[in-house]
Amino acid sequence: MTRFHIAGAAGALLGLCAVSALAAPRGYSLEGGVLDELNYARTQPQAYARVLQDEAYRSRAAGAYDDPAALREAVAFLSRQPAVAPLSSDEALAEAAGEHAQVQARDGGVGHVGPRGESLSQRLHRYGAFASLMGENIAYGYADPREVVAQLIVDAGVPDRGHRANIFNPAYREVGVACGPHPVYRVMCVTDFSGTLMKR
Q: Across the chain, how many H-helices and E-strands are there?
């Protein structure tokens, strides 16, 4: 079963990652930061609930905190969520995510389907990998790993909380993250998840 969801900048679209085009410290990897943040949330959900509460007071990631009811619901979810295993980074997933980010950097598109109607599964096949279970989160407009992950967990405006479900799905074992520029939202991050990968 495949789940696809978008996070976009302030309503229907809630936020993705950023890119090297933004000033960043030498050696800094936005992709690595997002992976670290995902694994922090997965392995320490109760601690991450406190992070959301603390960040809400500082309002660093306005998109994650401008819906108080969604924030309270996310904190309650995290408070009872069991820890799940950390995700491992996978090159094929990262390549598939990177391809999608590059296309949208050129055409300003949003969403999970490529310009020729290609799905995540089709993109992944191009890099020699297959999975029966996969999912994708995309966030637009955020350049900080914590902001990217926090707003996907709060998932305001997404009734089924699909981004959050992807992040905490215990069947997902591997992930690829690619962040880059976006002509409308300035920055974006694509996060591709999978269960067991099979490779050619």
A: 8, 7
